[in-house]
Structures are given as C-alpha cells and as structure tokens.
C-alpha cells in the first residue's frame, strides 16, 4: 500500500473512533468525485454476512484456496461519501441501498458509520475483474452470462421503480470466473416517480449555449420559429441529466423531463455494444450535443431526429450528409463481423449477410445460418453457434436501442429473448 494511502487511511481512522475498533482498513480500491472506497476486514464479529456469496474464499488461479474461509473475518467495502455531496444526496444513496438490500444482484448495505459530517457505508466486499481486462476476450457465452446477470440486476431494481442512472462497467462488479455480477453505486439513482421534480444534482444550467459545435438542439415547444438559439431568450430546458458520458440515453441528452427506468436499458445496450465491437469506451464526448453527434454516427441522423421530436426538440447537424447518413449500427456491426470472419478464417460473407437480414428485420425472425461450404468439422459448428449467438445479441441490442423509451424493451422482456434461451431453466 503506497505511503499516501496509508496516511489517508490513518486519518480516516482518527476521524472515526468506531472505525478502528471494528474494522481494519486494508487498501484503497476506488476513488471518484463523490467518494473513496476502501477494502477492509470486519473485526470482532461486527458484521455477520448472511449470504454464502460473501463468505467464499478468494480464488487463486481460478481455484478456491484450501481453507474454507469460514473462520476468516468478513471482508467489506467501505464507501466514504464525501461531504461535498449534499446531505440529501447521501441520504438518497443510503436509503436506496437499504431499500434494495436482499437481492444477490445489489450489494446490500451492512452498516453505516457517521462521525460529524462524515459518512461511511459498509458493503460486503465483492471480488471482481476490471472490465478492461476481459471485454476484448470474453467469448460470446461469457458475454451472455454477463448480460444475463446485468439484466437480472436491472429487473430487480426496476421492479422497485428505481432508476440507477449511472449504469456502466465500473458500477457493475463482475467476476468472469464465477459468472456472477452485482450492481453498486446508487449515488445518482432515484425512484422513478420522483423524476419530474427537478433535483439539485447535475441539473444542466443551459442547453442553448452558443457553441462552435456542428450540433444544435433547440426546444420545439413554445412555438419555435426560425429563430436560432443565439437569440433564444426562453429559459433553458431543465431536467436531471445525471450519468456518465457515453452511456446517456437520447432522452437524457434531450433533457426530457419524464425519464424512466428505460434509460438504464439504453446504457446496458451500450455495454453490450462494447462487447460486440470489442471497443471500450465507445463514445467520448463530454458534451451532450456532441454526444448526440456521436450517436447519430452509429444510429443515423434520422433516428436521432425522430427521437428529438418525441421529446419536443429539434436536432440539426451541419455536417456532410454522407457522414451522418451512412453511419449506422448495421454498418458498424457488419464491419466488425467481416473483420472477425477474416481473422478466424470463416468462409465468407454468408454470415455477414444472414446477420444483416436479421438486423433489417429488426430482430423479429431468426435465420439459422446456412453456410455455403458446410463442414462436418465440430469447430466449424461451434463457430456457427457463436454466430447464432452473435445474431441473438444484435437482436437484444435492437431491443435496447429503440429511440422511443416506450418501445425500448424492459429488463424482463430482454431476459426472455432467444439470446438467453440456454440459460433459462
Ligand atoms: P463512486 O460513487 O465513487 O463511483 P462506487 O460505489 O461506484 O463509488 O465505488 C467505486 C469503486 O469501488 C467501484 O467501481 C469498485 O471498483 C469499488 N467497489 C465499490 N463497491 C464495492 C464492493 N462492494 N466490493 C468491491 N469493490 C467495490
Ligand atoms: Mg461508481
């Protein structure tokens, strides 16, 4: 453990008299804008873990170590929520964690320590791998398990009307060896009904800023004529736009005030697309209007404009039509497939062709691949199975990427798609 971190941990222990009595800080495992997370050992039976999940000993080279771990002290994650975040924000996070305890898909709140304005949330420590270490190599069966776990977690919280709002790989802890994953970080989460109340978190001060950007969003409501944002004296649209760049759904980017749990489904789709294209992060723009441009390169400008209309906005992008019209999901995926089949020596375009036909049908019918050069080779069959899986994955992504949140599938509907059929018992 680096010296600065040791010093930080010492300071924390001084701050919290009860901390050093019940916990031994081990190391720092995360640091963000609103919190720092430490790994710690719970001492003196201060924490009793109900679920076996938390008791299992750490994996060594993929195999459990010999000790059963039953006599070992539980390992916890200690989340120090900074005072810079408002008391109501801290309360919201703790309250939601408390409310969501009891599922294997959400890290349950075990305890909370407070000293003056400092708050520490105690959660079971969950061993997981960094997404960057496996998103390139996880085979499609592994992707399936990841997405299965992810949509189960979403199904659980959405049934309780909770929108996570910040779904991304660092907030979904996944262990590719165990095939288990769980959601953390409810710092931006909220109950779905309350989304119409403007909260004091991350409210965008103004969307109609004059930008050098080629992308413009304007508010169509309140009889918009030919005037452009520069002269627009109307108050800017305000809505919760909390989230992380690259994962925000179109309705969040358009500042729609009636946001629903479906915005998490979009973010889950972005994770799926990262797996499929083996690219992470997929999008980089820190700016909402530029993020719309990035989306139009993948989904096509027309779709984004339709989405703008649904939310009472207009969208204009002053770039050559070639760029915004040709860029679309089908092309991105087809390029990827061609690349994969070239690299794996798969004969041909038929795979690509079949896939495209599925995409064109918008995922309604599944065509079994009929390779022109059929082969008895088992590994070839396996490859074809993989491609069938890939097709089903596209179908899933289509469900996640409906521009209209009402048409976008729910987590429960997605779990019933053919992509997961082999996991349904
Ligand atoms: P932040 O609000 O700062 O993003 P998070 O709750 O997302 O805080 O935690 C930050 C990081 O700490 C996570 O990305 C993860 O790596 C680690 N972490 C959080 N909770 C746990 C846990 N229960 N077990 C293991 N690691 C955790
Ligand atoms: Mg986080």
Automatic annotation (TrEMBL):
Name of the protein: non-specific serine/threonine protein kinase
Gene Ontology molecular functions: ATP binding; protein serine/threonine kinase activity
GO CC terms, sorted: nucleus
Alphabetized UniProt keyword annotations: ATP-binding, Kinase, Nucleotide-binding, Serine/threonine-protein kinase, Transferase
Keyword Nucleotide-binding in annotation: yes
Residues of the full protein shown: 167 to 591 of 599
Signal peptide residue numbers: none
Domain of life: Eukaryota
Gene that this polypeptide is encoded by: Piso0_004499
GO biological process entries: mitotic DNA damage checkpoint signaling
Residues annotated as transmembrane: none
EC numbers on record: 2.7.11.1
Domain Protein kinase: 23-420
């Amino acid at each position: 453990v680096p010296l600065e971190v040791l010093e930080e941990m010492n300071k924390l222990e001084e701050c919290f008299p009860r901390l050093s009595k019940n916990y031994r800080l081990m190391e720092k495992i995360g640091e963000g804008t609103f919190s720092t997370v430490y790994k710690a050992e719970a001492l003196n039976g201060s924490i009793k873990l109900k679920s076996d999940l938390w008791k299992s000993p750490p994996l060594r080279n993929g195999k459990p170590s010999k000790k059963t771990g039953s006599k070992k002290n539980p390992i916890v994650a200690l989340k120090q929520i900074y005072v810079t975040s408002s008391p109501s924000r801290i309360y919201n996070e703790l309250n939601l964690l408390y409310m969501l305890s009891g599922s294997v898909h959400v890290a349950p709140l075990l305890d909370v320590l407070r000293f003056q304005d400092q708050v520490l949330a105690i959660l079971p420590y969950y061993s997981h791998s960094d997404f960057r270490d496996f998103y390139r190599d996880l085979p499609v069966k592994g992707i399936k398990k990841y997405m299965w776990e992810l949509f189960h977690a979403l199904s659980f919280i959405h049934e309780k009307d909770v929108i996570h709002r910040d779904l991304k790989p660092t907030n979904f802890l996944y262990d590719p060896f165990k095939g288990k994953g769980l959601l953390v970080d409810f710092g931006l989460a909220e109950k779905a009904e309350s989304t119409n109340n403007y909260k004091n978190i991350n409210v965008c001060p103004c969307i109609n800023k004059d930008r050098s950007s080629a992308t413009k969003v304007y508010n169509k409501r309140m009889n918009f004529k030919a005037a452009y944002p520069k002269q627009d004296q109307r108050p800017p649209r305000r809505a919760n736009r909390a989230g992380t760049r690259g994962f925000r759904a179109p309705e969040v980017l358009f500042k729609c005030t009636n946001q629903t749990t479906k915005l998490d489904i979009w973010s889950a789709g972005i994770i799926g697309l990262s797996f499929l294209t083996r690219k992470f992060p997929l999008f980089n723009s820190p700016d909402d209007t530029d993020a719309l441009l990035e989306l139009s390169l993948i989904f096509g400008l027309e779709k984004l404009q339709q989405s703008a209309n649904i939310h009472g906005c207009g969208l204009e992008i002053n770039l050559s039509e070639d760029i915004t019209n040709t860029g679309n999901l089908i092309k991105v995926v087809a390029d990827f497939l061609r690349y994969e089949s070239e690299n794996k020596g798969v004969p041909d375009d038929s795979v690509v062709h079949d896939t495209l036909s599925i995409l064109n049908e918008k995922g309604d019918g599944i065509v079994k691949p009929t390779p022109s050069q059929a082969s008895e080779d088992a590994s070839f069959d396996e490859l074809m199975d993989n491609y069938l899986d890939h097709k089903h994955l596209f179908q899933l992504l289509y469900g996640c990427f409906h521009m209209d949140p009402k048409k976008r599938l729910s987590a429960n509907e997605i779990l019933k798609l053919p992509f997961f059929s082999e996991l349904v018992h």
